[in-house]
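Components:
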Amino acid sequence: MAESSSPALELAPSDDTVAAFTAKLDAARTAARGLSSATTNQKDSALGEIAAGLRGSMERIVAANHLDLANGAKNGLSAGLLDRLTLNPARIESLAEATLDVVRLVDPVGETVRGRSLPNGIRIDEVRVPFGVVGTIYEARPNVTIDIAALAIKSGNAVVLRGGSAAENTNAVLVEILQSALEAAGLDPASAQTVDEFGREGARMLMRARGYVDVLIPRGSAALINTVVSESTVPVIETGAGVVHIFLDESADPHWAVEIVHNSKVQRPSVCNALETLLVHEAAAASLLPAVLARLVASGVTIHGDEATRAIFADALPATTLDWETEYMSLDLAVRVVSGLDEAMDHIRTYSTHHTESIITNDLGNAERFLREVDSAAVMVNSSTRFTDGGEFGFGAEVGISTQKLHARGPMGLPELTSTKWLVRGSGQVRA
Amino acid sequence: MAESSSPALELAPSDDTVAAFTAKLDAARTAARGLSSATTNQKDSALGEIAAGLRGSMERIVAANHLDLANGAKNGLSAGLLDRLTLNPARIESLAEATLDVVRLVDPVGETVRGRSLPNGIRIDEVRVPFGVVGTIYEARPNVTIDIAALAIKSGNAVVLRGGSAAENTNAVLVEILQSALEAAGLDPASAQTVDEFGREGARMLMRARGYVDVLIPRGSAALINTVVSESTVPVIETGAGVVHIFLDESADPHWAVEIVHNSKVQRPSVCNALETLLVHEAAAASLLPAVLARLVASGVTIHGDEATRAIFADALPATTLDWETEYMSLDLAVRVVSGLDEAMDHIRTYSTHHTESIITNDLGNAERFLREVDSAAVMVNSSTRFTDGGEFGFGAEVGISTQKLHARGPMGLPELTSTKWLVRGSGQVRA
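Structure:
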């Protein structure tokens, strides 16, 4: 049986809610069809209008944001969450600039991925096409509203946004700006929509909107991502948590060990490619650890070590299994002494989230084994883990870092927001 | 929090069942690690042993198959299902030959997809790696057991099989042959496993085995695929049903119209790329339809037409909405007269399963609009729909035809059974 034009949603909410939600998604699907044929010039024009809209609406955005911040303070949001929720003129200007950066990216739509002529004269070409409708569920970070909409529009996708309710007032203004910009560029304003007004039901319905939404990208905490992964019937791209490891091999260059570990942990501890657990070869622990840890402690890092680590570095707090499992996202580091490469890879296999792992070594055989056997999105030799990043990889922008194995793995650029289709051009051929 | 080495399964069955199932999947994960580093020679040697094992075990396979066929007849299986369940010496020999064909395919593992040197001297390379553990849920077609295992092994993946219970005895013998062949080639026999002994619970547990199984590929009816898609927390590759359309445009070449429609419908009606609905431009219906339908009827096709079709071809049965939605997989064809390209594309948008659609036209503008606007895995001009096929596309073998947009779309070859990872080689670089 074919999928009908209005796929059934498996929903608990009232009929009216379902009807209103379905109408929004129907409008998004229609808009997606138009956007899929829009030229790069039209899409870039919409991005320019978004940047202009942000710059021209600073006061409105800040006023709405103040409302969200006041509610947040009343509801006891932490200082960190309130900071993520804040949009001030400087941050709005950064968002406008980031939107204009997307203009400079190559439009992936229409790229021929591969193609050939078949022996019978038929020509086949696999070309990039937009997914259609991209859904995204995220937390109270209103910058994501603009970031993801800009990337979706450039790649020819309509976007349906479900932000955290703590940012509802800010997001409402931002979505108005998106829609006005689309309209000003001659594109369907329904290409960018929010389902925030449906509250938690909105997120639930979005996860079940198979046939309306082509792919769902959760952005936020591991808990949010796990919920989306396990409840969604729409295909999900998992952009994930990073319990990131470095292994200092016996032959590690002492200077590289100090500098790479410090950079991986300290340069920006709150992001997913920051180091969380350091593993050290037992034969090198006594010679390497004192300098490596001293440099970290001087930058304010708290060390959580196993017994062997604490025998060398007495100031370390005792580490438990919980430390091996934790993505601190703070100036904390778990440290463990291992018997060698095999035990290091066992530890990584047990606790890694398959994001990024790096070995510091001068042993060719160990480097090659690590590259081959560690099953993560990025596997490194003698490099800071902070390089797993779309910008650093030369993608220009980053949709997220995929820690799953399907469709995309590692930093995702614009091409990862597309699918493909096969164009088949014949002249009457039939199959024998 | 990190995924631990033994992810929790969300299960209803008894603790003993879960433990036995988990032990199997743990063994598959361990085997997958070995298989991911196996050389092409080793994997090809296993394929050779499988072919030899099939040829050397004809009597055992046929005896087990007779048991299944007798049970099936007792349980009232249809003649068609009993035929699909049957393995006789000729079919077993075909399976052995198909396995040897896989030896000749290029091993996708290790292929560099893209790579570059970053400005700071770091070298990054994206290379193909196996998924790890591929799960498959299919119906009582024992040939799938060998087909999918051969493709999985060649692409370096362990495979966990859940076949239809009606083929349980046959599959048990086939899995023994697979495991003996793996062992003879020096590979871990746990690389190919069945969970048939867990019955329906086995399928349910497999769909929930996130963290153990990297991707799940359902093979079979639309109902089976829909169940897997909606119940699985493991990422699914949907290989799908085909409600395939041809649109005869006003300018269609009459000879091409007759021959392409006939070939698309009649050459092999039981497969997913066979034609199911013919749409005809109203201005060409009177001139084209009589010859097109006469040729079909001469080959035994039953026509289900709308009113306009029946006005031209009185022998047509009346078509209802159900006909537009149905994948007949038989010598039946739905026919509808439309006002032009737009109505044809509306019909396709409403009823297509996004597999294959073809336009027969001599109008360049209409051809380009059809190619651009129809959202299917394969969109064709003046070609039989039967060409949407891995073999025809030059892939050598076919895992299935993906009708989803994530990861793979259209015919899937061996590379579509792999993921990638980024290898990052530095010399002490840190991020500024």
